[in-house]
From TrEMBL:
It comes from the Bacteria. This is Transporter. Signal peptide: none annotated. InterPro entries: BON_dom, Lipoprotein_DolP, Transpt-assoc_nodulatn_dom_bac. Residues 48-115, 124-191 form the BON domain. PROSITE patterns: BON, PROKAR_LIPOPROTEIN. SMART domains: BON.
Amino acid sequence: MKKIVLRGVLAALIGATLSACVPLVIGGGAVVGTMVAIDRRTAGTQVEDEGIELRAASRVREALGDRVHVNITSYNRQVLLTGEALTAEDSQKVEQVVRDVENVLSVVNELGVGPASTFAQRSNDTFITGKVRASLVDAKDLTASAFKVVTERNVVYLMGRVTQREAKRAAEIARGVDGVRKVVRVFELLTEEELSRQMVAPATQDPAAARTPAKP
């Protein structure tokens, strides 16, 4: 009986952790998120990003059904689209549908044109995401919780509000992971001074007002 109770407690803890960490994924892509308590976004922005993902997912399904395999990841109202669309027209339609979602500031369309990825490919992407995440955690000069990692067809996408040094270092680490074909940076850059101020006293205003998108 004690073993049964212990297993139940462990299952509950694991379930709670997963529900706090994992953002929306449409079509089985690989995404690793960060917990609300240690995210560099405000709590309100994190909730808003979740809402954007849900609304965008619903509208894409309504507009295109099973014709596309789309992963939608919103970070500080910047939306990353990964996955596949059968035609360039479908890809553009997905982008437009997501752009029209309330509170979306910008869309980075990385949809490939072609058939949906296989289960084996998606499993491999999940494995790569885990390895990149572990490598970021192991790095002593980075705060791993500042990064969101998305992998699609062996291409790793890095998101987060980071400094130029952090962006460069994280990209170097991701490139060094076995199986990674390419690294795409989808960052919002902070100066070292901005980061220091945020660490001392987390901003209460919307950080999107001062966003500076990084070049891929």
